[in-house]
């Protein structure tokens, strides 16, 4: 009986060590964080360049394209601020919902809008606009790739922590009931 008790105790200690080591593991993604950092720095330059180029070409656009372009830019600026905040919060705090929100905003809203600004001939993308849009698109694609892997790693980590906590609680209940 003592041998069985010692075996349970060793098994309990091993699970406890696994839980503690898993709880202190860092799952934030460095490439994603670097890309977010560069995006935050580049974002004001993108805004300045885009608005400057808008002032040059605004009078040559038709009324409908003026409205569309203004609407796209307002949406891009608002969504980009929210997206970058969620990316920072989700990656550094290792929060899956925020990271998922960042990734969904990136792929569903930002990517199509940036592609529209870059490749839409009626919106007359000027060379400076094209240059900053390409940089933003490269940053966005980098964030999509690294964000997917960061989201997957963080979700798996949280699931393992949950399962180990369940095992820990179950073994603690069994230990208290044996006494």
TrEMBL record:
<feature type="transmembrane region" description="Helical">
    <location>
        <begin position="98"/>
        <end position="119"/>
    </location>
</feature>
<feature type="transmembrane region" description="Helical">
    <location>
        <begin position="64"/>
        <end position="86"/>
    </location>
</feature>
<keyword id="KW-0472">Membrane</keyword>
<dbReference type="GO" id="GO:0016020">
    <property type="term" value="C:membrane"/>
</dbReference>
<dbReference type="InterPro" id="IPR019184">
    <property type="entry name" value="Uncharacterised_TM-17"/>
</dbReference>
<keyword id="KW-1133">Transmembrane helix</keyword>
<protein>
    <submittedName>
        <fullName>Transmembrane protein 17-like</fullName>
    </submittedName>
</protein>
<keyword id="KW-0812">Transmembrane</keyword>
<feature type="transmembrane region" description="Helical">
    <location>
        <begin position="36"/>
        <end position="58"/>
    </location>
</feature>
<dbReference type="GO" id="GO:0035869">
    <property type="term" value="C:ciliary transition zone"/>
</dbReference>
<feature type="transmembrane region" description="Helical">
    <location>
        <begin position="131"/>
        <end position="151"/>
    </location>
</feature>
<dbReference type="GO" id="GO:1905515">
    <property type="term" value="P:non-motile cilium assembly"/>
</dbReference>
<dbReference type="Pfam" id="PF09799">
    <property type="entry name" value="Transmemb_17"/>
</dbReference>
């Amino acid at each position: 009986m003592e041998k069985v008790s010692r075996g349970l105790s060793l098994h309990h200690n091993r699970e406890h060590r696994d839980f503690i080591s898993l709880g202190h593991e860092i799952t934030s993604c460095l490439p994603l964080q670097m890309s977010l950092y560069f995006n935050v720095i580049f974002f004001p330059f993108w805004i300045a360049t885009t608005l400057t180029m808008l002032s040059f070409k605004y009078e040559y656009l038709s009324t409908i394209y003026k409205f569309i372009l203004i609407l796209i830019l307002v949406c891009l600026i608002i969504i980009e601020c929210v997206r970058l905040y969620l990316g920072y919060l989700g990656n550094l705090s290792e929060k899956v919902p925020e990271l998922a929100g960042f990734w969904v905003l990136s792929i569903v809203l930002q990517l199509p809008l940036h592609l529209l600004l870059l490749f839409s001939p009626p919106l007359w993308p000027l060379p400076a606009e094209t240059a900053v849009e390409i940089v933003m698109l490269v940053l966005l694609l980098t964030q999509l790739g690294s964000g997917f892997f960061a989201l997957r790693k963080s979700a798996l980590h949280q699931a393992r922590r949950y399962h180990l906590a369940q095992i820990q609680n179950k073994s603690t209940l069994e230990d208290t009931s044996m006494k």
